[in-house]
Write a structure and sequence with these properties.
Elements lengths: L2 H9 L6 H31 L3 H10 L2 H16 L2 H24 L5 H30 L4 H29 L3 H20 L17 H10 L2 H16 L3 H12 L5 H25 L4 H19 L4 H28 L6 H14 L1 H14 L2 H38 L1
Length: 417
């Protein structure tokens, strides 16, 4: 077997599973539509108000339900059939996208209506995210979970690569509303993929019976495991302060580089998406997450994000966003796989819901805060604050890893003495 074929077979190993292959294709189409909506929604808010704070609040509202009730969404995923949950959530997201498109077409879109629909989408994602995360292992099993998570991250960012470019064209040629219509239609691909899956090929997964104290048990489970706890805390820090690109990049485009075209914003998002695809494929090939690798990726992400903050032109920002995207998705895929590989089957929904709270649920805090920082200073400062905290988190992970290695060495020495 040639080196290229060996690389391909290892990198795309999870795609050998039919159910995951269907899921992958359906999600690729749907995620492209989701990114189209994300770009269009951000541009719509800036057209309506021109306010960075308003943009931050709209984005934050999509994640308020996750912040407040994220653990409950994970518990529902542990109790019920994941595929059935996904049927409901995908239909719900499609309806909300369609409503937003109609409001824009009929000139009834206001900041208030956009906020309400963003909040309702957050309720859908409250149940969708942990179910989708836990569903991956049900399709591919324990051995392929790290590879599948990385490939899942690749498709999310392939959508980021494809969606913004299409959205920029739609906004310029046919209008913002068509981005929302396209997103609503894209969910049909996911529903068809779920329908075509073979139930007999799913791995048997235990569900949890309803009992008192199950939410507290999930929190205690993560708190008592140093590896899980470190990952969740690290993701929470960068999720709050660094992963706010839907706030900072439109503002960097308009305020710093004085580019008023949606195409320029789309190119920045596409550059980051291109890098993310590369980073996801590299992690998919490696497939084995480690604490040392997580620390390295955190430091790389913070370093290149700093270059974005101080880029002298939009072209240099696009160049710096490629490695930023690569490190960002490699970081998130590694954190995700680490949690899934080191959590028990019956706790996985709740563990992944805490991951979702840390990564997405912190947005209601981080997005308005970054919006305020930008309004008080400029977009460069907003990005630099996030990159500085990412670097500090990476340093903390390095010291934590070294401490754990010393503890293991001391324990081994004591056992052999």
């Amino acid at each position: 077997m040639s080196a290229a074929r060996r690389f391909s077979s290892k990198t795309f190993a999870a795609l050998s599973v039919r159910n995951f292959r269907l899921y992958f294709v359906g999600q690729l189409i749907s995620v492209s539509g989701t990114w189209m909506q994300s770009v269009a929604q951000g541009w719509l808010v800036l057209q309506l108000t021109g306010s960075s704070v308003d943009l931050g609040f709209v984005i934050a509202l999509q994640y308020v339900p996750m912040l407040l009730l994220g653990s409950y969404g994970g518990l529902i995923a542990d109790r019920h059939d994941k595929r059935r949950i996904l049927y409901f959530t995908q239909c719900g997201a499609a309806v909300l996208a369609l409503v937003l498109g109609v409001l824009v077409t009929t000139h009834h879109a206001t900041l208030a209506t956009v906020m309400v629909l963003a909040g309702l989408l957050g309720v859908v994602n409250l149940f969708d995210n942990p179910a989708r995360q836990a569903f991956v292992q049900q399709m591919v099993g324990h051995e392929l979970i790290a590879n599948a998570v990385s490939l899942n991250s690749v498709l999310m960012n392939a959508g980021r690569l494809i969606g913004p470019g299409i959205a920029a064209g739609f906004i310029a040629v046919v209008g913002t509303a068509d981005c929302f219509y396209a997103n609503a239609a894209s969910f049909a691909a996911v529903l068809l993929a779920l329908f075509m899956m073979r139930r007999s090929e799913f791995l048997p997964m235990k569900t949890v019976e309803r009992q008192k104290g199950q939410l507290r048990l999930g929190l205690r489970y993560v708190a008592d495991n140093p590896l899980l706890r470190n990952v969740v805390v690290a993701v929470a820090v960068v999720g709050t302060f660094a992963y706010n690109f839907t706030v900072t990049l439109p503002l960097l485009t308009r305020q710093t580089f004085h580019q008023n075209s949606a195409a320029d914003y789309g190119l920045l998002m596409a550059a980051m998406g291109a890098g993310a695809v590369i980073g996801g494929l590299v992690v998919a090939h490696r497939s084995r997450p480690t604490p040392k690798m997580l620390a390295f990726l955190m430091l790389g992400f913070g370093s290149f994000m700093t270059l974005v903050a101080f880029a002298p032109s939009v072209t240099w920002a696009e160049i710096a966003l490629v490695p930023t995207g690569a490190f960002s998705i490699a970081l998130i895929a590694t954190a995700n796989a680490t949690l899934q590989l080191n959590s028990s089957q019956q706790m996985r929904g709740r563990v992944m819901s805490l991951y979702a709270i840390a990564f997405l649920g912190t947005t209601p805090i981080g997005a308005p805060l970054v919006g305020l920082i930008v309004s008080w200073s400029n977009p460069r400062v907003g990005i630099a604050v996030g990159s500085s905290l990412a670097l500090a988190t990476g340093v903390g992970l390095v010291f934590s890893h070294r401490r754990d290695e010393r503890n293991v060495a001391q324990l081994q020495a004591a056992q052999t003495a």
